[in-house]
Design brief:
By secondary structure, the protein is an alpha/beta fold. Helix content is about 35%, strand content about 15%. The chain is built from 13 helices and 14 strands. The protein has helices spanning about 10-20, 55-65, 95-110, 175-190, 205-210, 225-240, 265-275, 290-295, 300-315, 325-335, 345-350, 355-360, 385-390; strands spanning about 25-30, 30-35, 35-40, 70-75, 115-120, 135-140, 145-150, 155-160, 165, 195-200, 245-250, 285, 320, 340-345. The strands form four sheets. The chain has an eight-stranded parallel β-sheet. Strands 1-2 form a two-stranded antiparallel sheet. A hairpin with a 5-residue loop joins strand 7 (about 145-150) and strand 8. The longest helix has 19 residues, at about 225-240. It binds flavin mononucleotide. Flavin mononucleotide (FMN) binds near residues 42, 75, 250, 323 and 346.
């Protein structure tokens, strides 16, 4: 783990005097973030093959973005069973730990902080991605609508329909918690600065939380207390590895991605947020369910606003929001005390120096969805910084030690 980041930068201090919140520092667990512009977790499906190992190219990509107040890594499977897309990195093999160490060192050398997002996809997978071609696991045997992204015989990415997953036996649940514990320990060995537990976007922990994907009749299904049990067990176990002040949790209340639905999201997620309070986590990270409206420059729907306000009310620690933010909306939401940190996703894909661009009001490059998943440097490490646009040479990215 790196030392806590330096306190306020000159830019942050001048922002403080001008009353701008986006560029004010913030204490986050043992760290002091120089500003509030976080890089959201972004799957890019570019881990080295075979073995889903982070590579020099991945280290370059993260180091380029080290001016974020905090980098949250792409979702990283804690086990082979936890994988749901082709070429995503894991944190369960020795090679993967070494690969992540190179990423963490690159980020630290560039002055940044990185948390690893710990991931188990549950039913959002396919036998082609599972050990020994087995069925993906889930709280209940309910097939999601949609398609899985796998590698075909020619080594290309392709979409195939999801299958009906196998419902986990109650005896297996301690081993799911164990997968997160091992992932958390490996992340620590890799030298990242903390972890974020991915309990959002319709993956395994979210499948347990939401009523439509959890039809269990044992102590992990039915009541909201039971549906939340696995998340809280995972949070407790991961906090034992890291200390709660280096652990974040990501939720997506009212989310619909990956065919998820809850019959009473305010009750469900209000309960989750109030339970998470007890851990004194580094932060709670919430995905805005109406990012599309915010992106159009409008207020999110009343339902979305109500659940975001509920998260703020029930959770008393540091709150990070993501989804559809631009500079002005981020500043306005911080000013209105709706959040403490704002995570940017797509804008960070195409603007490695996003905090500086936001600070000076520079134009932003548009991202290209064609290069989101898979491939190499194109659309990944080739977006220029402002300094490069002024003619500076790019910082040497691939250090020999990173090979
Ligand atoms: C290419 C891509 C990959 C993503 N991968 C992840 C991921 O690995 N984990 C996660 O929690 N969210 C993931 N998301 C969601 C983002 O973290 C973020 O919530 C979303 O992009 C909305 O923020 P934005 O409007 O600033 O882009 C991904 C989004 C995109 C566009």
């Amino acid at each position: 783990m790196s030392q806590p980041a330096a306190a306020a930068t000159p830019a942050a201090l001048s922002a403080q005097t001008s009353g701008e919140k986006l560029f004010q520092p913030l204490k986050l667990g043992p760290y002091t973030l120089p500003h509030r512009v976080v890089m959201a977790p972004l799957t890019r499906s570019r881990a080295h093959q075979p073995g889903n190992v982070p590579s020099a190219l991945n280290a370059c990509y993260y180091a380029q973005r080290a001016s974020a107040a905090l980098l949250i890594s792409e979702a990283t499977q804690v086990s082979m069973q936890g994988q749901g897309y082709a070429w995503t990195p894991g944190i369960h093999s020795r090679e993967q730990i070494e690969g992540w160490r190179v990423v963490a060192e690159g980020v630290h050398e560039a002055g940044g902080l990185i948390f690893m997002q710990l991931w188990h996809v549950g039913r959002i997978s396919h036998p082609a991605l599972q050990p020994d071609g087995m069925l993906p696991v889930a709280p209940s045997a309910i097939r999601p609508a949609g398609e899985a992204f796998i590698e075909n015989a020619r080594g290309e990415g392709t979409l195939v329909p999801f299958v009906t997953p196998r419902a986990l036996h109650i005896e297996e649940i301690p081993y799911i918690v164990r997968q997160y514990v091992l992932g958390a320990r490996h992340a620590r060995n890799a030298g990242v600065d903390g972890v974020e537990i991915h309990a959002a976007n319709g993956y395994l922990l979210d499948q347990f939380i939401n009523s439509a994907t959890n039809h269990r009749t044992d102590s992990y299904g039915g009541s909201v207390e039971n549906r939340t049990r696995l998340l809280l067990e995972v949070v407790e176990a991961v906090c034992e590895v890291w200390g709660a002040d280096r652990v974040g949790v990501r939720l997506s209340p009212r989310g619909t991605f990956n065919d998820i639905h809850d019959d009473d999201p305010e009750v469900t997620f209000g309960y989750v947020a109030s339970q998470l309070n007890e851990f004194r986590l580094a932060y709670l990270h919430v995905v805005n369910p109406d990012a599309a409206a915010l992106e159009r420059g409008e207020e999110p729907s009343p339902d979305a606003l109500r659940i975001l306000a509920l998260m703020r009310e029930k959770y008393h620690g540091t709150l990070m929001l993501a989804g559809g933010f631009a500079r002005d909306s981020a500043e306005a939401w911080l000013q209105a005390d709706r959040a403490d940190l704002i995570a940017f996703g797509r804008k960070f894909i195409s603007n490695p120096d996003l905090p500086e661009r936001l600070r000076v009001g520079a134009p932003l490059h548009a991202d290209d969805p064609v290069t989101y998943y898979g491939g190499g440097a194109k659309g990944y490490t080739d977006y220029p910084t402002l300094a490069q646009e002024r003619g500076e040479q790019p910082r040497a990215c691939v250090d020999q030690r990173w090979r």
